[in-house]
Amino acid sequence: MFSTADLRGRVMLSALLIVLILCLGTLGFVLIEGWSTFDAFYMVVITLATIGFQEVHPLSIRGRVFTIVLIFFGVGLLAYSVNVGLRALLEGELQAVLGRRKLEKRIREIKDHYIICGFGRMGRIICKELKANAVHFIVIDQTEDDERLKEEMLFINGDATLDEILIEAGIERARGLVSLLSSDAQNLFVVLSARVLNPTINIVARAAEESSEKKLIRAGADRVIAPYHIGGMKIAHTILKPAVVDFLEFATMSGNIELQMEEVIVAEGSELASRMISDSGIGRNLRIIIVAIKRKGGEMTFNPTHDTFIMTGDTLIALGEVNRLKELKNMANP
After folding, report:
1. For residue range 178-209, what is the model confidence (pLDDT) as tens digits?
2. H or E segment at 197?
3. How many CA atoms does the CB half-sphere of 126 hold within 13 Å?
4. Which of 272, 262, 248 shows the shortest CA–CA distance to 292?
5. Non-local CB neighbours of 306 within 8 Å, separated by 6+ positions
6. Global pTM exceeds 0.90
């Protein structure tokens, strides 16, 4: 099977070869026989097509020799070019059909995934982070983009504000949706549609205007992110608290093998449940710091003490080495 770039290259090569044959044949009859450009071009066409019409004008000896050469080389080259072009087109079409069927099958089978609406600068960063953490996701975007980039992920070309596109992306089976479209109005449509199609899905939306945040929340978004506000605050903190910003970036950077900050959910039946932090061995054995605990009801406890109890359904905000954090996740989710 041809790749997209290979397919385009073969089709272009075939077209160039055909044009080259026609041009060289026409030029040959013009120079040898002194015919007009149209008569020479017509003679080349009927010769290469092997139709067998009579000659436009009587040929000289040199003209007949040139015609013989044109038949031997031109007809063969033309047949090769047409064959390569047709094969490329047919196999490319077959590849597109098979690729689409494979994509549709993967989309039908995927579940507990995230839907990313919008593949701009923010969308690319989010997809990179999700991929680095082995989280399944589907991208919905209308713009044409690098085909090689799309082949590395599940990608749907379409309008995310349409219900049928969200359904195609498996929204009924999705864990969450992130709406990053260019306008707040479009994000509002996506949030409304997503909440109706899947009442339990976790929705995060981007808001360009501060006034849109409350509207998106009322429409059904669980969280609304204002990039300009966050960016401004980060710049201010970089000036005022540079060491704090450096630490947070270091602790949350993907691929950092020295230190990470993770969320760990305590499942039912976990050995950590109903035990105090001091008795769990998290600090003593794993050398992990519990920065905060988010209770099942939403209450957040910061810097919990050693006698704080860990309960089923708690989300532990833990700081430690990557390997140690994996051990903690195994303890929390047996």
Report:
1. 999 989 999 999 999 999 999 999 999 999 88
2. helix 184-197
3. 21
4. 262
5. 276, 277, 278, 283
6. no
